[in-house]
Amino acid sequence: MANSVTQEYMQIPAVTRAYTTACVLTTAAVQLELITPFQLYFNPDLILKKYQIWRLITNFLFFGPLGFSFLFNMIFLYRYCRMLEEGSFRGRTADFVYMFLFGGVLMTLFGLFANLFFLGQAFTIMLVYIWSRRNPYIRMNFFGLLNFQAPFLPWVLMGFSLLLGNSIVIDLLGIGVGHIYYFLEDVFPNQPGGRKLLTTPGIFRVLFDMPQEDPNYAPLPEDQSGISQNGQGEEDDGQGQNDEN
Fold this sequence. Notes:
The protein is mainly alpha-helical. 63% of the residues lie in helices and 3% in strands. It has a domain at 67-208. The N and C termini lie far apart (56 Å). Keywords: Endoplasmic reticulum, Membrane, Transmembrane, Transmembrane helix.
């Protein structure tokens, strides 16, 4: 049983596994009172004046106390993060991490002016938005009540958040940042006179992408001769054995 759970866990794509695990562990640490949300929230003054740099990351990891809202966010985060990583970003881990960085930086800049403390939900909406725009023809069903095309999903989630009495500023931020990434990555490069503006740094490819074999690779002549000599030697040995018999 334990081996099967571990095996299933390790089959989750690396970035999705790392991010969702960090979110769950952060929430568990708060529930166990090892840390408090006051040590995690986004506070520019503490970041700049007290050098509490970790707040740039931890504000994306806390989704509130255990409850319906936390489970709801975790399900959507895991589902759409994994589908992106296994879908349009399959074999492009560096590009996926760069998208994380781009979205996180942009949200942090907006957070400076919107007085937002935790940006994890906005990040989830961003992932949902990008996936929905790249899969426009998929039919969705929301709790058996609504049927719609995938691009409407972020807006349905925003409406659901509004019904629960939550502020929709976070959802709008996620949709806005997701649209900026989608436009720069998928739309603008395909326009007349457009070009690709988001280029993944080479260091990201070195760190996160597996090296690919060159299809045009050919062994050096000495390697080929070595192979042929080894093959000839084996044939000679075989012939010698046959002669002895």
